[in-house]
Amino acid sequence: MQERTIPSGQELLACFESMDERFEDEKRVFCTAVRESLAGSGEVSRRAIIFCIIGEMENATDPLRLDVLRSCLEILVSINFEPDVL
């Protein structure tokens, strides 16, 4: 199974930015992960975002930060992206 990518990442950023206001911390995590992925490879995928979040979890020690990162993973796997998007 090949991972689909979004060359510009704009659709994904728009999806995350439209999230409810109660998810402000999660929005920041997602937007940072998308920008890091774009800066590294020029493309973004669900897998790249997951790896970015897990990498951050490995270094985090603050329980509140870890909770936000865990929430991000839960949100990411629950989002129903169009097949051509991710």
Characterization of this structure:
The protein is an all-alpha fold. Helix content is 65%, strand content 0%. The chain contains 4 helices and no strands. It has helices at 10-17, 24-41, 46-59, 63-78. Helix 1 (10-17) packs antiparallel against helix 2, helix 2 (24-41) crosses helix 3 and helix 3 runs antiparallel to helix 4 (63-78). The longest helix is centred in the middle third of the chain and has 18 residues, at 24-41. It is globular and about 30 Å long. The two termini are 12 Å apart.
Distance between the termini: 12 Å
- Unreliable stretches covering 5 or more consecutive residues: none
Largest sheet: none
Taken as a percent bin, the fraction of beta residues is under 5%
Number of strands: 0
- What would you call the shape? globular
Based on secondary structure, the structural category is mainly alpha
* Helix run count: 4
Helix content: 55-70%
Give the mean pLDDT. Answer: 79
Cα Rg: 12 Å
- H/E element order: HHHH
Short description:
With 86 residues, this protein is an all-alpha fold. The protein has helices at residues 10-17, 24-41, 46-59, 63-78.
Please give the structural blueprint:
Blueprint: H1 10-17, H2 24-41, H3 46-59, H4 63-78
Helix pairs in contact: 1-2, 2-3, 2-4, 3-4
